[in-house]
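User: Thanks for the earlier help. One more: V-type proton ATPase subunit a. Can you show the sequence and predicted structure together?

Assistant: Of course, both are below.
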Amino acid sequence: MGSLFRSEEVCLAQLFLQSASAYSCISELGERGLLEFRDLNPKVSPFQRRFVGEVRRCEEMEKTFSECRGLTLGGFSGDRPARPLTLRVQEQSEQLAQELREVSRNHASLRGRLRDLRQCLHVLREGQRFTSQPMTFGAAVQPRGGLPIPALLLCLCSFVAGVIHPWRVTAFERLLWRACRGYLVASFVEMPEPMEDPVTGESITWVIFLISYWGEQIGQKIRKISDCFHCQVYTYPESEASRTEAITRLHGQIQELSVTLEETEKYLAEVLDKVAQVLPTWRVQVQKMKAIYLVLNQCSFDVTKKCLIAEVWCPVRDLTQVQEALRQGSVSGSCFVQRVPTSESPPTLIRTNKFTSGFQSIVDAYGVASYQEVNPAPYAIITFPFIFAIMFGDVGHGLLMFLFALWMVLYEDSPRLRQGTNEIWLMFFEGRYLILLMGAFSIYTGFIYNECFSKATAIFPSAWSVATMANHSSWSSAYLATHPSLTLDPNVTGVFQGPYPFGIDPIWSLATNHLNFLNSFKMKMSVVLGIVHMGFGVVLGVFNHVHFQQRHRLVLEFLPEMIFLLALFGYLVFLIFYKWIKFSAAESMVAPSILIHFIDMFLFTSNAENLPLYPGQVPVQMVLVVLALASVPVLLLGTPLYQWCRQGAPRTVRPGAVGGSMGVTRRSHCGCCPGAAAGHGGTGAAHLDFAEIFMHQAIHTIEYCLGCVSNTASYLRLWALSLAHAQLSEVLWTMVMRNGFVGLSYVGGVVLVPVFAAFAVLTVAILLVMEGLSAFLHALRLHWVEFQNKFYVGAGYKLCPFAFAPDTWE
């Protein structure tokens, strides 16, 4: 079979690499992504391996690259790294990082210096404006001397000026007043332009303060308080001429510094452009080099220390590509690959594409397939959307889901859709093809149920004729006035003209007993589909038995399982179809109950009030129950007795086989099959514990027999959720949308707009999202428990190839 139906054949191989060519060979294999390397030095510490120095050098370069922030880094799309490239990349990256650090440091220093000069200029300007006024500034203070304020200003000769954060002004002013006891004159004013906060980087409007005081002790207190409040204090000249001269000098310094800063920013932009050009490529190359050296640390040296030996898991079909990669990577062409036998279970490899990956993910969520067992994913491509659609059947809802998935499929190459950060959105996008099929199948089942937003559509004329019934009955005007519901009798000639061409007849949506009719139809449909689905799962187990050369299981397991399933529940399906075919509308009143017949079948009795469906029904049912009961001891004791009889017999291993793990089946982990025994013991005549084999077979027998009953009942969720979805849709239409049809006037059109908006929102939120998620989870459970449990183990592990590019096998 192909890779999708069964995992590919994987073998254990050894790579013999020359020391000089090992790096280039591993690099070539990483570009192709063919092999999964095994660690041949599990007991050696990572710090004691041969290439630990190269790994540390790569990590140091990665730290150097991380210093260059704000740059867009690419993915694995660089050139193949050559081994001598390591030192050159390290030298150039360190030189470029050092240059970038120096330029960034100088740029930050110049910006800080320019900010200080501008703040000092604003302080001098505001102070000049205040001190040149004839009146006082700020809060008027009456000192102890009793001198008037203008005269006091002439006596004051000491100033403290600076800027403070606006949040600290009130506390700063209050503390100054209390500490200096009023022997100062303080003024506060906002700076004309906002400036950057050096701590937070935010743009804020600083507050300029100017404090006049007398006394050296008062000045010391003011400076200490300013330091405590993280104020930026500037020198304030005492004379007006000195202040004017300082302002002129600051103007010149600011102009010179602005020119210098502009040139520095240009040079910094050039350095950043250079970094932006080379850093992504360097980063990719260093990551590849680090990955290669980590793989080389998993290899071991031969006795001569001139050759590296690596063990890999490799798909058999890719061995020629591996040899070609080694030939291209080696200088002399002396590197080669050799297949080796093993008793270990190989990893599972199932190649997928963008269509099958979503369905394979559903199966892998239950458990990765054991090596070369049947893969349920290709069958789930059809069965999963169909079972979902049985519970979600509605033409309108399915069409909305189909269009949403179709939009994702058509724009699947858009980076905006692929690189989303919302995890829920990414989950929807990865399963776009699954949603597409679920919508398409929901449209199909919606046509069968004849439901479009809970309303029936008359695609074909109805098979029921009301006019014929009226012509053959005594429906008078008085009778019609007193009977709001009329009964259509199919026994009257011409009233029922035959089955509807496709799906449910639309006249049933008008009937008062349509729910009873749909209950009977959907319940029987769920039972039939469930038994067919389970029987198909049992049949798939045949492919496992044949592939693993365990043909005794065909007689000792598959045959009893099918007899038990078909003798009881297959017979139930037969009764359903037989009753549909035999009894017409004229005989419907005397049709027997299938449920009572099925109960009497297990009780080995008959009910006189419930007529038989066919002659000799009771003996047939007794034979079927006896066959079902007789298959249980065969299923319970057949495989253990067979293994016990073969316990002492020698066993041959097929040449070229990968190992005993080829015999992994549903119960191979317990040692019930020869393959599992070889995998555990490693010898041809491994000892089998009969008690353990019998215990596991007993568990399997009980699980299967009881599971046939419980799983059949579990499929009734198809009936329940289908009815629930239909009723919710009908309630939403009746209680919301119908209220919008209040009239045909303009008022009715205005009212219809918000009503339809509410109907659309509730339809998407409840019926599409919530009901869709519920149907999806129930379909998932039916596949995991009821279907896959019949043949699927899921005890394997994936093949994880060493590859530079992600999604190698997709």
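User: Great, one quick takeaway?

Assistant: The first helix runs from residue 22 to 32.
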